[in-house]
């Protein structure tokens, strides 16, 4: 059955190429990020409806919460079916919410659009379709999901058994924290005209090598939108002058809140722990008279090992990161020892957490000189405060990428109301812990 839908009447110009890329399967993943009230979720729903009709396939729409959230998403699907004039192409059934595609004679087909909540991403495992799998997966409010692994699990599970055209779409308002997994993965995409970039689009490609020596290109489209992209074209879609006026008042009274909430700009920088991080290029011919060495031991699983060499310039109150080694949590003690020896050529003393005497013994059995880091009351806070007091912490992002990333992204905990607390988050700070151990003899308040 032929589709006669005018995209320009139903989406803003900034999203036109997004919809074309989706419908022509030019990309495998689409990331729609930006401020509130940008119609990005509407674009994902409209694209889903047209995609399912075009390819005669099934789709899955997922929100983190159930109940009201799934009910709201179902109402939006019905709304855009009516707007597009395709309501008669679907049969709506509740509990669980799903829309069954109808054929030209109005008979139910084996294709459907399912809507579900996933407070536990494993719940998706029970979702099935008669046609073998979902070709279009839409993750609404992706920022509500706790980790990248949760999102990846939903994607891989929902796409299981699927053949033919398929695409994964997710929409979200960038979380406040720089450290959020979505901001880490997509925050550096140079897109968003209202953020100062040349375009709202950014394509991220990666060549994937297969075991049979074949390869393919995995392409991700990242798009950043704001209400300003919509305002001049369709102010009525925003709610008219009353809503736009409120936005402008917020811009004047609380610029940072406006930038985050309405532009989708990541502004959680006030939560940064270290403001003294500076990019530096390692100088191999320079003399570093006294090197401090530290290692943070893995607790197993995804928790990594982290070893680092540091030079403290006491005269200028500066700290230099000279080397790093990051090892997987399942690395053998022999592998750990080999890599420490590689960066500690003269087998000098290094410090590890005094709370792990077993690892200290195992490392020393590998002919290393591991010593317990001296720790006193509130040693973590004291160590961080000492690092904060330095004039500069110089890190080479090429030579020590993980250290550079962890020090730059380390933030105080942000509560549910987006207030910055004084609590240090015990996550993604392995190189920071290794640094504290390395310098424990110089951090007087830790003794």
Q: Whole-number radius of gyration?
A: 26 Å
The helical percent reads: 25-40%
Structural category is alpha/beta
Major sheet summary line: 9 strands, mixed
Low-confidence stretches: none
Counting copies of identical and different chains, the oligomeric state is: single chain
Find the count of extended strands (DSSP E, 2+ residues): 18
**Mean pLDDT over all positions:** 87
How would the global form be characterised? Answer: elongated
With helices defined by DSSP (H or I, 4 residues minimum), what is the helix count? 15
Give the CA-CA distance, first to last residue. 77 Å
- Which strand order do you get reading across the main beta sheet? 3-4-5-2-6-7-1-9-8
Note the beta-strand portion. Answer: 15-25%
What is the structure about, briefly put?
By secondary structure, the chain is α/β, with parallel strands linked by helices. It is built from 15 helices and 18 strands.
Provide keyphrases for this structure.
single chain, 447 residues, alpha/beta, nine-stranded mixed beta sheet, seven-stranded mixed beta sheet, 15 helices, 31% helix
List the helices and strands and how they pair.
Layout: H1 7-10, H2 16-23, E1 29-34, H3 40-55, E2 58-63, H4 68-84, E3 90-93, E4 98-102, E5 108-117, E6 134-139, H5 148-158, E7 167-172, H6 181-186, E8 201-209, E9 215-225, H7 227-231, H8 235-238, H9 241-253, H10 255-261, E10 277-279, E11 291-296, E12 305-313, E13 318-327, H11 333-343, E14 350-352, H12 357-364, E15 370-372, H13 379-388, E16 392-395, H14 401-409, E17 412-414, E18 420-424, H15 430-438
Parallel strand pairs: 1-7, 1-9, 2-5, 2-6, 6-7, 10-16, 11-14, 13-16, 14-15
Antiparallel strand pairs: 3-4, 4-5, 8-9, 11-12, 12-13, 17-18
Helix pairs in contact: 3-4, 9-10
């Amino acid at each position: 059955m032929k589709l006669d839908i005018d995209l320009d009447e139903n989406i803003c110009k900034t999203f036109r190429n997004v919809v074309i890329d989706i419908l022509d399967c030019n990309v495998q993943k689409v990331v729609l990020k930006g401020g509130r009230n940008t119609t990005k979720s509407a674009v994902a729903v409209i694209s889903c409806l047209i995609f399912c009709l075009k390819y005669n396939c099934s789709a899955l729409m997922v929100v983190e919460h159930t109940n009201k959230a799934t009910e709201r998403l179902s109402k939006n699907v019905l709304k855009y079916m009516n707007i597009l004039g395709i309501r008669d192409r679907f049969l709506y059934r509740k509990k669980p919410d799903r829309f069954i595609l109808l054929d030209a004679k109005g008979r139910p087909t084996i294709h459907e659009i399912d809507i579900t909540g996933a407070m536990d991403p494993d719940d998706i495992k029970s979702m099935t379709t008669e046609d073998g799998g979902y070709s279009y997966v839409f993750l609404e409010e992706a920022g509500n999901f706790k980790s990248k692994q949760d999102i990846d699990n939903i994607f891989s599970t929902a796409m299981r058994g699927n053949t033919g055209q398929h695409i994964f779409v997710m929409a979200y308002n960038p979380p406040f924290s720089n450290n959020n997994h979505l901001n880490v993965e997509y925050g550096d995409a140079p897109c968003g005209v209202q953020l100062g970039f040349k375009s709202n689009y950014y394509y991220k490609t990666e060549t994937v090598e297969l075991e049979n020596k074949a390869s393919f290109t995995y392409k991700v489209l990242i798009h950043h939108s704001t209400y300003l992209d919509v305002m001049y074209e369709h102010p009525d879609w925003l709610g008219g002058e009353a809503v736009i006026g409120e936005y402008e008042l917020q811009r004047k009274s609380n610029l940072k809140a406006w930038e985050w909430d309405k532009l989708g700009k990541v502004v959680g920088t006030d939560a940064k722990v270290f403001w003294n991080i500076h990019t530096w290029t390692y100088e191999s011919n320079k003399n570093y008279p006294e090197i401090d060495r530290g290692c943070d031991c893995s607790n197993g699983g995804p928790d990594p090992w982290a070893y680092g060499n540091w030079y403290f310039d006491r005269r200028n109150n500066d700290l230099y990161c000279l080397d790093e080694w990051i090892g997987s949590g399942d690395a053998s003690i022999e592998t750990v020892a080999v890599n420490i020896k590689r960066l500690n050529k003269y087998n000098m003393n290094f410090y590890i957490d005094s709370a792990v005497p077993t690892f200290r013994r195992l490392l020393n059995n590998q002919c290393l000189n591991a010593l317990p880091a001296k720790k006193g009351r509130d040693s973590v806070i004291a160590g961080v405060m000492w690092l904060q007091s330095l004039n500069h912490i110089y890190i080479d992002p090429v030579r020590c990428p993980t250290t550079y990333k962890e020090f730059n992204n380390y933030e105080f905990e942000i509560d549910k109301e987006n207030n910055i607390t004084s609590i240090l988050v015990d996550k993604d700070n392995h190189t920071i812990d290794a640094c504290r151990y390395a310098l424990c003899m110089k951090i007087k308040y830790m003794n």
